């Protein structure tokens, strides 16, 4: 799971909808991997305005990445190749292989296994109950 993806995720538990502490989700017990990705400076420049920078900076601190600036880079700052490379490495090349994402509101943990987070919720936590199964109709009853 790329770190950029986490910036767009929030807790799926019904009780957390609208709660400010449900975002960002927090990493716990993570195993990180680096995967080479071609450097894409234009992509980084274009994605920066869409990123919740406060959440991104918090995530960088939790994962001990010192090269993520405290404030969102704008204007001429985005012309710095070193900054773009640092952000590219953090957002696109650094991936979570194993671990957990935890909601700051309810504490629910989403397990990350082989780079995929499981956001399926038990029915008592979901936003709507599962529909009742359709009755089976035997062929004889037709």
UniProtKB/TrEMBL annotation:
Gene Ontology, cellular component aspect: cytoplasm; nucleus
GO molecular-function term, one example from the UniProt record: protein heterodimerization activity
Entry keyword set: Cytoplasm, Nucleus
UniProt xrefs under InterPro entries: Trm112, Trm112-like
Keyword Transmembrane helix: no
Biological process per Gene Ontology, one example term: rRNA (guanine-N7)-methylation
UniProt key word Transferase: no
Location of the protein in the cell: Cytoplasm; Nucleus
Family that this chain belongs to: Belongs to the TRM112 family.
Full protein name: Multifunctional methyltransferase subunit trm112
Lineage, top ranks: Eukaryota, Fungi, Dikarya, Ascomycota, Pezizomycotina
């Amino acid at each position: 799971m790329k770190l950029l993806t986490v910036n767009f995720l929030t807790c799926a538990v019904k009780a957390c909808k609208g709660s400010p502490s449900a975002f960002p989700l927090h990493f716990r017990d993570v195993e990180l991997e680096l995967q080479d990705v071609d450097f894409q400076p234009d992509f980084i420049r274009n994605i920066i305005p869409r990123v919740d920078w406060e959440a991104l900076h918090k995530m960088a601190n939790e994962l001990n990445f010192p090269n993520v600036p405290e404030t969102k880079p704008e204007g001429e700052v985005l012309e710095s190749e070193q900054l773009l490379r640092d952000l590219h490495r953090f957002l696109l090349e650094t991936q979570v292989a194993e671990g957990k994402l935890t909601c700051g509101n309810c504490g629910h943990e989403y397990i990350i296994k082989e780079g995929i987070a499981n956001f399926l919720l038990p029915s008592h936590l979901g936003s709507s109950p599962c529909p009742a199964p359709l009755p089976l109709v035997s062929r004889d009853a037709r």
